């Protein structure tokens, strides 16, 4: 486990996060833009580390910025504001006029509080009509963001003008998710006719030298969602099977708990569940570093599916191993392996 004292007597900065989190990505953009060296610590949101729980005990969320002998900093926009204040001369993100700064912060807040939650709302809404209403809302919001781009960019490339500014960082961290939502729900958020500036801007952002490596790619997001869909499916089956086995056991023998039935009905989910974290805010999932190196950015869905099969084979082998515990009536080891 990483300890604060490992950073002592150095200016080392650590960022606690998950690579698929847009909130984490935006802090990475700023660290890169300001040429600040940092160590990235991958967090597993399914099983939060002691370091995360100790450094963000209130919200228990990433990103968290850690510095030697200083309190941890949480919340992406607060971290970005802090970095802007302590490194004001390297790649300035905000204008010097306080009123201009306040207006830019209004739009950053608007994006985080009003626009981005719509993606998660879309995913969670079960009915077709409900989804259609949210899609309409997302399209309306994107037209508003297009107007905001026209206003702030002044005919230049970015919201920040000639180069990436505060709003580019905040909005840009969601480009990967935006493209994923477009593909998955088959509609255009960035549209050549309705939002031509945003189309060009998104292209520029994702090919920007400093930004491209810290953006969750569409393929990566797709992979994460393939896993979570699989897990959701298996988990529901597990709940269902477990409930029916419970009512069965009530009739036969109330004290009997058959741990192997849990393994049988959801073998893969236990393996994957321990590696994939759930985020209530933006659908992002954290995948631990043991799984992540198997996937490269730019991988096609077909490749991801192939890799998914390999993983499932591995997980089945692991489950077969684990099944031995209940068979050997080793309840403690069985519960531990779950
Ligand atoms: N407002 C926060 C949002 C951060 C956030 O939602 N982080 C997610 C990952 S994308 C998280 O850590 N979720 C963990 C949880 O909800 O338990 C920020 O801007 O930093």
Automatic annotation (TrEMBL):
Keywords: Detoxification, Transferase
InterPro entries in alphabetical order: Glutathione-S-Trfase_C-like, Glutathione-S-Trfase_C_sf, Glutathione_S-Trfase, Glutathione_S-Trfase_N, GST_C_Tau, Omega/Tau-like, Thioredoxin-like_sf
Recorded catalytic activity of this chain's protein: RX + glutathione = an S-substituted glutathione + a halide anion + H(+)
SUPFAM superfamilies assigned: GST C-terminal domain-like, Thioredoxin-like
Family annotation (Pfam families): GST_N_3
Top class in the EC scheme: transferase
Domain of life: Eukaryota
GO MF entries: glutathione transferase activity
GO cellular component entries: cytoplasm
Family: Belongs to the GST superfamily. Tau family.
Protein name stated in the entry: glutathione transferase
The species this protein was found in: Lactuca saligna
Lineage per the UniProt record: Eukaryota, Viridiplantae, Streptophyta, Embryophyta, Tracheophyta
